[in-house]
Specification:
Number of helices: 15
Strand order of the largest sheet: 2-1-3-4-5
């Protein structure tokens, strides 16, 4: 009995050695999971892009700005002359926070009055917004305590009653920090990613295993025509999924849609076709459906974690942020949340559209080269 068991064990090791791709994927999945969860994922949001309008432009206001930027929670990305410029930058996604310092900031401090500071927060991501609200208030209180301690000295300019710096925070787009308003639009992208990629990843492999791929090769159908024929039916399926997800989000979770549905549906084609192409590329690399499924999961895991769906990208290390820029879902999430939560137009979304177009072309060129070489 032991000899027979050892023979079966030996056979399995031989099979593993022959099927090197499957064995490599099995080793890579836990390695990637440990790396992503243990190192790349960081819920402590730092280096949030900050925009500034400083009407005071005095020593006191500059010290307050330094308190924000030296905290490592905020990075000053732009200085504007009017709050409208901050509003446009927040709509485009250039900054997440706007800091507006009143023109009477320093004079109010001298007159023993609360010096007003307004903080505008993009609350479309509740996790980033909660961290920003807490940090902004904390910095304001810390600066107030510093000023109060300074006033303990003889000859100080004002008394110690009250908090000198009055931080007024306004949350935009999702003022109640409702998680569903942020998660549901993201889920649309994640669902499309999973279904489009995994379904088409099986397409060529299934044809090969059933023996029908050889029949297709003998016909006048070219690789490009075969690719288009495989992709187009699933485009319709993708749009059905989008419609169902939007209906559920509005009716069940009361997610408001502030932007144009026509624009949303028009731009969804980029994401659908991109991940259909990735699925086809996987199907040209895999030898069987099991390998295709494993490779899809191997790609799906970092896509979900590094795109900004689950964790803020601002909290990730540099290499993780750069890798996320190679994922179409990273840009599609910005498009979804921009249209649904912010109601922005195409002009504010162009910066996310052209990278998706580049990635789409690259994916299909690789898939076409693989398909033509193997078939």
């Amino acid at each position: 009995m032991l000899r027979r068991i050892l023979a079966v064990i030996g056979k399995e090791f031989i099979q593993m050695r022959r099927d090197r791709l499957t064995f490599a994927v099995m080793l890579a999945i836990p390695l990637i999971q440990l790396t992503l969860f243990g190192y790349a994922i960081n819920t402590d949001v730092k280096h949030i892009p900050l925009g500034l309008v400083d009407y005071s432009n005095t020593r006191s206001s500059r010290e307050l700005v330094a308190s924000f930027t030296q905290s490592r929670y905020f990075d000053l990305k732009m200085t504007a002359g009017h709050p409208r410029e901050l509003t446009r930058a927040i709509d485009r996604g250039d900054i997440r926070v706007g800091l507006i310092i009143d023109s009477e900031f320093e004079s109010d401090l001298r007159r023993r009055l609360p010096a007003r500071v307004q903080v505008l927060v993009d609350a479309s991501d509740p996790q980033v917004a909660s961290s920003t609200l807490a940090n902004a208030n904390g910095i304001g209180q810390s600066r107030s305590l510093e000023l109060l301690l300074q006033n303990q000295r003889p000859g100080s300019g004002y008394g110690v009653n009250g908090m000198p710096v009055d931080v007024q925070v306004r949350a935009w787009f999702n003022p109640d920090l409702v998680t569903a308003n942020y998660i549901v639009p993201g889920l649309i992208g994640v669902i499309l990613t999973m279904t489009m990629m995994m379904t088409t990843a099986m397409a060529i492999v299934r044809e090969r295993e059933m023996g029908t791929l050889e029949q297709l090769v003998t016909t006048p159908v070219r690789p490009l025509e075969l690719m288009i024929g495989k992709v187009l039916p699933y485009v319709l399926v993708g749009y059905v999924q989008i419609s169902v997800a939007l209906a559920v989000g509005v009716l069940l979770f009361q997610v408001p849609i502030h932007g144009s549905l026509v624009l949303l549906y028009s731009l969804c084609i980029l994401h659908i076709v991109s991940y259909l192409g990735l699925g086809l590329l996987i199907s040209t690399l895999a030898r069987n459906q099991q390998q295709a499924l494993q490779m899809s999961f191997l790609l799906y895991l970092p896509t979900m974690l590094l795109s900004g769906f689950m964790f803020p990208r601002e909290g990730m290390p540099y290499f993780a942020q750069q890798f996320g820029l190679l994922l179409p879902l990273t840009y599609f999430l910005q498009i979804l949340r921009g249209i649904i939560l912010k109601g922005v137009g195409l002009g504010d979304l162009v910066r996310y559209v052209w990278p998706m177009l580049i990635l789409l072309v690259a994916i299909y060129v690789l898939a076409l080269l693989r398909l033509g070489r193997r078939d």
